[in-house]
Inverse folding.
């Protein structure tokens, strides 16, 4: 089983739609969770951290369910500029505390 | 915010030659940096963890003699792809953490 698994996508949605991405992780001892955004042929950039109580940043809402080892990202009122690949990232809780990435979910927002 | 600079951004080399990629943390010190590789339409895969002042830790299946990592200072890690072959063509990205992971701009390596 992969350490971090995401919806395979791709998601093709119209502008203004609400879209949700899901992610599960296998290591129950993981402590830090993030959503990154990666545009084509560019490096990933941090979109938002995911906190236990859930957190919101504008049109983006992240949720964490530790019991189910599940993370979600909700995007409301999708914009064309939201088109990208969204990566679920979990720290691996080893000596180096390195990050483990999901395969990413591709989102295309169409006019 | 924290900045990680990586260069070159793009390199084309002949098969059999070696290529060095640099990763610098510009405004913070990083005792640990990470090197990833990403093939088209695939996720980032961790290759190795670079440790300042000591040997790098390589992931299973990554040849340490082929991918040489040097982390001589708290702000610089280098990845050298030795005797590159076309199958090494990929997008290589480094990252360093300052409470969160920050990535270099990536290096697109093409071996012809």
């Amino acid at each position: 089983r992969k350490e971090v698994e995401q919806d395979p996508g791709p998601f093709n949605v119209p502008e203004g739609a609400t879209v949700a991405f899901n992610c599960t992780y296998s290591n129950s001892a993981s402590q830090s969770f993030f959503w990154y955004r990666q545009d084509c042929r560019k490096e990933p950039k941090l979109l938002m951290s995911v906190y236990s109580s859930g957190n919101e940043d504008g049109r983006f809402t992240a949720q964490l369910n530790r019991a189910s080892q599940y993370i979600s990202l909700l995007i409301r009122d999708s914009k064309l500029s939201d088109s990208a690949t969204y990566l679920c990232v979990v720290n691996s809780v080893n000596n180096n505390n390195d990050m483990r990435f999901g395969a990413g979910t591709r989102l295309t927002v169409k006019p | 915010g924290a900045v990680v600079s990586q260069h070159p951004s793009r390199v084309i080399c002949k098969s059999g030659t070696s290529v060095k990629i640099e990763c610098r943390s510009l405004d913070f010190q990083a005792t640990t940096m990470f090197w990833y590789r990403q093939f088209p339409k695939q996720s980032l895969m961790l290759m190795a963890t670079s440790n300042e002042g000591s040997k790098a830790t390589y992931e299973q299946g990554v040849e340490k003699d082929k991918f040489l990592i040097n982390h001589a200072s708290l702000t610089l890690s280098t990845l050298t792809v030795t005797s590159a072959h076309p199958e090494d063509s990929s997008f290589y990205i480094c990252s360093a953490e300052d409470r969160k992971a920050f990535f270099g701009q990536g290096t697109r390596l093409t071996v012809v």
User: Anything to note?
Assistant: Chain A has a mean pLDDT of 90.
